[in-house]
Amino acid sequence: MLEFWLCFVPLFVAVDAIGVLPMFLSLTEGFDAAKVRRIIAQSMITAIVVALLFLAIGKFVLHFLGITVADFMIAGGILLLTISVSDILSPEKRQRQVDPESVGAVPVGVPLIVGPAVLTTMIALAGQYGFLWTIAAAMINILIAGLVFRTSGSIIRVLGKAGARVISKLASLLLAAIAVMMIRKGITAFL
Questions:
Q1: pLDDT tens per residue across span 101-116
Q2: Residues with Cβ within 8 Å of residue 67, at least 6 apart in sequence
Q3: Would you list the domain boundaries of the chain?
């Protein structure tokens, strides 16, 4: 069970559902409740499919390319560190133009719920703790993101936009620390 929590916490930080909540709200602004529910369902299905596919074939692709888990941990740690520092230093998460019919798949499902940070973290965690714990932690985190989006109005009323930004910055700081740990473990495994 400890392995589950060791997978859950880094993925919870990487998903950062509260941090992307303001963007989700801006992307769905003006849509009726039924449309928002469809967007949430589409985003969760997309995130689950992408996460499972990447976890299933990611290791084979890495093996085919001759990349070890230690190599991926170092590279993934550097990528996560870059993403987290960028998020810490940028005033807001980047917003993109979207198609109203596919907003649930892109950008909400990918890359907001399952983006580079989540994919990188999943491969590293699967190498350390196994696929079962990583899949379980990823699925629960995606469900939590869907729940956060579903209750978004209440959460923003409690936190306010400034509170959501503070939580997002703290999550990015934790992600940076996890990235440094991944780099350290990758170097240790390499040596």
A1: 898 998 889 888 998 7
A2: 75
A3: 2-190
